[in-house]
């Protein structure tokens, strides 16, 4: 019996399970994308290749409305979250431990530890009461809620970058008579830029994708794209939903690819 | 204390102050829109429910909490177990547990396989796992719905292959919830497992083979004990979202197979029992905390395993 | 355990026949044939990249030869997996299982083989005594010092009573003093257990200290096999002479050959007697090697084998190295053991004559 090598790492059957897992992971989304180009009305029969559902979705005023609202909220939330996260990251990194630091850290990362439905319901309670007191029922609640759970996502990459940054560069700037603000603006910030962009993109995607909290916090008629889709899923669906989903999918994929490349560049 | 030390102490105090100031926006936002509301919810769980939802402000009662597990018999007013609630909570725990097991069965070999590929190929595999991970939860749930519906992909394929005559009722069952959660949370299991296995020193595996271990023994006695942190991390990352699942059971489970998340929602909708909903939410949080504690305990104990 | 350990039955014989190994385009081993005898302490010696570790891994089963066979006691084991071979390895980085205790590590092999708990406990205790670690069985291995970890690795590999023990530069991570005491330990263990040891190192002093026989390797081939004395005193070729210890190289012309000795003429004109490798008949121009400690320097006479001028004197505590520029320009070093005064008797610039006895010069194969 002649082998060229004894592979200490291989385990029997694992390759097969892996292939099956990837197949299972991609089959549903693959089918979803394929059927978004389905000419037939019903989702279970193939009627030929057609882009009409994309057109239909594009022209659907409810979809337009929801999409615009999603983007507005995401832009606001991601921007506010990134700024807040940047400041918080600067405040919590590269320092000797002090009182309250762990508490701060836990608070900033809280949205990752509490189930979404719990936060959603709590926000529903609070915002309802505020709506009663102030009568305001605009997008503000949604922006505020989104910003809150986007902060940890913007925080993580910025913090990681700060921790691994070379302190001596800033010390050199201080040595050259730069004030703290100048050091920040001309040395720290440019070095942080990829991490800040990554944090923003992360927050943006997270906000766009959110379903649960948005569903509970929104007032009537304030659908975002995900909540619109959720509502549609209860009824007889046409491939129009597939089309919207495919666009969403494409957007996520593009962002992941960009994110991957930014990370690659860092190395 | 000399002058230099005093200056240093003052500078340190100033530094700490400015750090608190810098982190203020983030902390305020999170307090107002994430943590603070949790306390308000706690308060609401002790209030009396209003006739059309919401609460009767500042009337207190323990009904919200007792209704989580108990109910009053309408005829003789005795306190019995709220079967519907208890069974839903118990089923949520069971489903979460089985989802964790299923993702482990599929996820461990996958993570191991990816981690043992040559470095360049590895990146591609990880990338392929990351894409579903970043895909919207709703989209993935929807995709799953399309597969397991009565006129969906799976049934159509099985009928076409002649294996079955009429469609299997998978959707709107507990199995649908299980499949949906496994599908959605699988990447959450694979990624931390992968991170752990990638760090494994395979020279230890070599030593195992040198000492007469079979492939299975190497897996059981060397790889798995050393990868335990990853297993624990992955399990938490799957179990906890599963416990609080809302979208998946809503889309795939239909009205009859509610999980705790849907039960909670009901109290704010048709149920019109906000205090009960609040109490249930806090119950869910407690369950999550318990799970976290159990897992963390296991993680630290797993430092020295046994052969 | 009361059974005698020095029974010949324990040590296995390893045969490597016509072994060639390619990794892609790189040839790591080029036609190696070696026979390692039962119960011997055999060392593979050579610089990094010479293929010695690859050979060791082929005996263990982690690499398969591209061509050739690996034999154990005459049987071809080339196709057997590592866990099927009664051969154990002490790895360079010890590879101790961090999640197990000392005792669990040592007993690992026996447990994999399915031995009874009682037997495992008994053997583990014996092993702990053997490597002077008794009482430490319950310690996690991560708490041990480097030297202690090394001994655990040793005990772990010995516990299953293999026929052959492979050691891959096991002492390289230890400091000098520890290394020297471990060398003595290893030698003692090999004698006590009777197991064949195949030892890989790049440290020639280590090889000379411990081995019954040494194979000197370079660039995937075995250049010479022999006892430490053979290798040191009768190097067959330039690489071996150069790699082991310090040597002087002299050009010479062959005058005559009789029995197993040759007469050669050195550049100074003097004629000396020299030995030569068994498979060579020297003729024409050859290179002759003389070890520094075999040469004596003194006042130059007409019968001196070589003459030159002292250009450097290095004092080393136990010896002095006298570096001489010979008349023909070549460098020559004489090593003298120091007298109590510490002075070697020469100063820089002195003219000296160099002599050596009849039996120290060796002709190289090149």
From TrEMBL, chain A:
Matching PROSITE patterns:
ABC_TM1
InterPro entries the UniProt entry points to: Bact_Polyamine_Transport (IPR051789), MetI-like (IPR000515), MetI-like_sf (IPR035906)
Q: Where is the ABC transmembrane type-1 domain?
A: 67-259
**Where does the signal peptide begin and end?**
none
KW Metal-binding (keyword) present: no
Give the CC-aspect GO terms: plasma membrane
Mode of membrane association? Multi-pass membrane protein
From the Swiss-Prot or TrEMBL record, state where the protein is found.
Cell inner membrane; Cell membrane
Gene Ontology biological-process annotations: transmembrane transport
Domain of life, per UniProt, equals Bacteria
Listed A to Z, the keywords are: Cell inner membrane, Cell membrane, Membrane, Plasmid, Transmembrane, Transmembrane helix, Transport
Question: What is an example of a Pfam family matching this protein?
Answer: BPD_transp_1
Transmembrane segments annotated in the record for this chain:
12-37, 67-91, 112-130, 136-156, 190-208, 241-262
Q: What is its main location?
A: membrane
Asked if the record carries the keyword Ubl conjugation, the reply is no
Role noted for this protein: Required for the activity of the bacterial periplasmic transport system of putrescine and spermidine.
**Record's family?**
Belongs to the binding-protein-dependent transport system permease family. CysTW subfamily.
Q: What is this protein called?
A: Spermidine/putrescine transport system permease protein PotC
